[in-house]
Amino acid sequence: MPKTSWRKPVLLAMPAMLLALAACSSGGSSDSNSASPSASPSAAESASASASASASPAKDPWGPLPEKTTVNIFKVEPDGGPDFLALPEGETITNNRYIKAIDEKFNLDVKFPIDVKGGAAGEEKGNLMIASNDITDVMIVGYNQYLQMIDNGMLADLTQSYNDYASPQMKEVLQTDGGKALELATVDGKLYGIPTMGTVHNSDPLIWLRKDWLDKLGLQPPKTVDDLVAILKAFKDQDPDGDGKADTIGLPGVDKFAKTSADGAPAFYGYDAIFSAFKAYTGTWVKGSDGTVQYGSIQPQTKDALAKLNEMYQAGVIPKDFAIMKNEQASEKVASNTAGAFFGPWWAGWDPLTSAIKNDPKADWRAYSLLDTDGKSRSLQETPIGSIAVVKKGFKYPEAMIKMVNYGYQVQLDDPAVAGGDPYQGLTMPNWQTLPVPLALWRADSVILDHTGVVAASKGEELPKVGAATLQNYKTQGGYWSKGLDWLRQNPDSYGEPLSRVYGVDPIVENDTEPVYSEYYGVTHTMEQKMTNLDKLEIDSFIKIITGEKPLDYFDEFVSQWKKLGGDQITKEVNEALEK
Amino acid sequence: MVKSFRTTDRVFDVIIVAVLTLLSLSTLLPLVHIVAESFSDKAAVAGGLVTFYPRHFTLVAYRAVMSDHAFFRAFLVSVERVLLGGGLQFAFTILTAYALSRPTSEFRSRNAYMWILVFTMIFSGGMIPFYLTIRDLHLLDTMAALVLPTAVPVFNVVVLMNFFKSLPKELDEAALIDGAGPWYRMVSLYVPLSLPSIATVTLFSVVGHWNAFFDGMLLMNSPDKYPLQTYLNQIIVQASQPQSHLTPDQIKQLSQLSDRTVNSAKILVSLVPILIVYPFLQRYFVTGMTLGSVKE
Amino acid sequence: MRNKLAIHYHVMLIPAIVILGLFSIYPLFGLMIAFEDFKPGRGIWHSPFVGWENFQYVFMLPDIKQIFYNTVSIAIMKIVFTQLFAIVFALLLNEVKNLLFKKTVQTIVYLPHFISWVLLGGIIINVLSLDGIVNEALQAIGIPPIFFLGSNHWFPGVMVGTHVWQEFGFSAIVYLAALTGINPSLYEAAAIDGAGRFKRLLHISLPGITATIILLLTLDLQNVLNAGFEQILNLYNPMVYQSGDIIDTYVYRAGLREFQYELGTAVGLLKSAVSFVLIAISYFLASKFANYRIF
């Protein structure tokens, strides 16, 4: 059913109950395509191990479809070679035991008529399929694509199917982010897909520092931005590597140095931690003092942060060409130990620090959090919704997709028993991305959970209750960690993971970092047309202020420009959308 | 040949050689850098320590390329594409160029055809309609989708047509008197006399097909059918993908992937066919590139 | 007799007409998107028609003037400097007597023309970054490092420079061809009159290719809206959008990455229309003043 040109916005403020309510209200009226007879939703919850498929109220998350059904799936193969998939000889990403098991279990003949290699290509091909209204029965899409497809009436309403057929385990894991992803996926009270969640704290920007340089220069770890600036000046000027040459720098930088509306927060080398330290959240919808929602980039706190960044730029602790650096170039600075400090997420241990430690085994890398003007650690979170599995409108059995995701979730949970037997018994389990519908359903709280697990394993304490493979990994990494830093630095190929999981998460746990979310993740009509240019204006103005090409008060001019060129209209639309 | 022994001329010679050598070096050095990277140790490259000669010489990158089946499959797809696509372009360029090289006195509709060709060179419906067209012709996912749409390269047609036009009219008239038909004249008179130009446009065809990457991504429905540049684009572009929203698995995977030495080696291996074919045909350029004819 | 011949020519053109008809002309129906509020769900034929609204919006876009200016200024600078370098290079190379040296130089300088911008882009970013080879060389002679790819002041120049670097050799081919056409007896006569090599270059070679120079500049008129899509796509970044965003990069972003099909198509159509006029102009100029037919 095609709608008007307005894209219906998504509400964050939606009460958690809404999903259930929507399910009730839409149960009778819509879903004319769904073959499933209407029955009481509660029957689904208890279904799991029902043996006979023929006794069919047919609400069994694990039961077969009533007839043999072909399902066409758009496949986006992950970047990376075949080794990464860990499939046994003779099996491929499009022909393996998972796919056979799906057939046996659910009566589903999986076909991949369109198969693309690589995420970037996958996105463009997906856009093309949407633009030509030629989508497959089941697809995994991004959030923008998802909204676009709903707007064009291409997707089946899954509200009822989700309530009836999603396994209790899947429903539980989709609550580990507080239900945020499901809320965002619900448009006008209807759920059109199964979302993946943003992992909480996954991209919190930490300041990674060489502890051995701090010690050598007699410095304390930083708490505030000013502490950090002092450290960076010392790292740049006081020859921390002791080679008698002025060859070290302050911070590396990268072109995407701040979050914009289009891009997520920069995981590596960005300066969003500086912004957060002033309680400025760029590219984000924040609650203003008057209760309305305002754009973070134009708030006075942003001006304060820019003033500080300009000061850092003048002091030479930010590279002159930060705004054209690519990630790879910034990584070089760390890998070559030219930089002894950088902003990065908890998982920086893998890369670039594994390269850095290979080039200088004396390095002692640690992560710290910066506190903001309230003395608290707060971090802007990645978008709480990732990719979304959807079903084409008119496909006879929309629950087929949900059943495949049920199965996939069990595989990822290392608990194939629930799904009725592990097809890879006796073999190494292949990568989850070889599943027919590879939706990454990790627990959203896995950063902290895994940290706890590895630390516990290293001390021989009791481990959290998780699946077998995860448990094994806790033991392995905990084992490495218990051998001590010196051993890890001598064995750089084992260094990255334990360092990330322990030192990388420590500051988040110690400072009890508070996750910050945007008030709004949708796209309004005017946003669709003008946001690109506004983002451009924003980044342009920020760069000019940081580099001193324009004085700090240019910020006020930027704000009035931003408002005039569509910003005011967008703000109005966002508030209207949130009021509904 | 007049030889001059004057010193100003000698100075002039030295300057010329110096300038030309500098220009050549400016072209060559960046490539040397890539060669050096491909033979260097991964960590040295990541640390930015490699300039024009390899650091910690190693063949690891080339061994990785040699054992990469996807790379070789893509290489073969490209070879097939070049042979088929180049062949089609060869035949159609000659046919089209010959017909259009005829004077309007002999072929009145010639100008109308010519403007149609020029029109198609400038106007395009855009990517989505093109995709829909290929789909409706049931060519998606076939080699034909890569070679048919470009089978009449208008620029090459113009170059060859102008060469045909520049051949002396007398030949043509002599043949006409002998009673030779237009097909016979084209094949046995014009083509043999135009070898430099045909070699030049053929090189353009080969290189064009070898370097094309976008249509592979657009029109192929499985990675087995990607041509080499599509494959290369995928491995090079992915390195600069935004790094948020990664699962721990993807993180591990990315750290294994960011291997510039292997990428450098792949770039070089993919340049090899051009480096082989190109110098061989390059000597025809000066006589073969005729962008138009001045009527005297 | 003539009609009979013409039939053969029509037959020869069948492949071209079929191929271009199917793959170039038929897809032009997609240009309708420029006049629609395009809804993929309804398809190109059934989306609501909005007339010139998209074009009006294009002209209201704050950046559109800048984008047109960038496109035209970068393209014109590329044309002028590429031809200048090509002419000087051709004149110098023409003076070289050592065949081996001549061939080697030619082989090397034509090469970049055949390497795709995906690969060249990576190489250039590497060489021109602040700690790249070029800046290290500049520092060695006492010039402070220059922020080539990140300053709106330098970026257009770098686009022109790298384009010249890639193309000057190849563009020189036409001039080399023209130089071989100069009657050798002119040089001999001049040498007997006591003219040195440089003088001969100035007074015989250069005038000998003046017609070609004027001609090529006329032909390049059609390129003033082509500022180099692949090159800029591979080298630009948010810092230099102001000076580096061109029509083609805008169309690409709008059309395939941001779901703004209508704007992308409208801008693309505008560009095609202007290009077509320019080609017609250069065709008639060349034909009228140089008695020359491009096609």
From TrEMBL, chain A:
InterPro entries, per the entry: Bact_solute-bd_prot1
Gene3D superfamilies, A to Z: Periplasmic binding protein-like II (3.40.190.10)
Taxonomy, superkingdom: Bacteria
Transmembrane segments: none
Protein keywords: Signal
Keyword Signal appears in the UniProt entry: yes
PROSITE patterns per UniProt: PROKAR_LIPOPROTEIN
Compositional bias per record (Low complexity), positions renumbered to this chain: 24-58
Signal sequence extent: 1-22
Residues covered by region (Disordered): 24-66
PANTHER family associated with the record: ARABINOSE-BINDING PROTEIN-RELATED, POLYGALACTURONAN_RHAMNOGALACTURONAN-BINDING PROTEIN YTCQ
Name of protein: Extracellular solute-binding protein
UniProtKB/TrEMBL annotation, chain B:
TM region(s), chain numbering: 12-36, 82-100, 112-132, 144-164, 189-210, 267-286
Compartment(s): Cell membrane
InterPro entries according to UniProt: MetI-like (IPR000515), MetI-like_sf (IPR035906)
GO CC aspect terms: plasma membrane
UniProt KW keywords: Cell membrane, Membrane, Transmembrane, Transmembrane helix, Transport
PROSITE patterns: ABC_TM1
Origin: domain of life: Bacteria
Bilayer disposition of the protein: Multi-pass membrane protein
Domain spans labelled ABC transmembrane type-1: 75-281
Gene3D superfamilies in the cross-refs: MetI-like
GO biological process: transmembrane transport
Family recorded in the similarity comment: Belongs to the binding-protein-dependent transport system permease family.
Protein's name according to its UniProt entry: Carbohydrate ABC transporter permease
Lineage: Bacteria, Bacillati, Bacillota, Bacilli, Bacillales
From TrEMBL, chain C:
Membrane topology: Multi-pass membrane protein
Subcellular location: Cell membrane
GO biological process: transmembrane transport
SUPFAM superfamilies per UniProt: MetI-like
Alphabetical keyword list: Cell membrane, Membrane, Transmembrane, Transmembrane helix, Transport
Pfam families linked: BPD_transp_1 (PF00528)
GO cellular component terms, semicolon-separated: plasma membrane
InterPro entries, per database record: MetI-like, MetI-like_sf, UgpAE/MalFG_permease
Residue intervals passing through the bilayer: 12-35, 67-93, 105-128, 168-189, 201-219, 266-286
ABC transmembrane type-1 domain ranges (all copies): 68-282
Family: Belongs to the binding-protein-dependent transport system permease family.
Protein name: Sugar ABC transporter permease
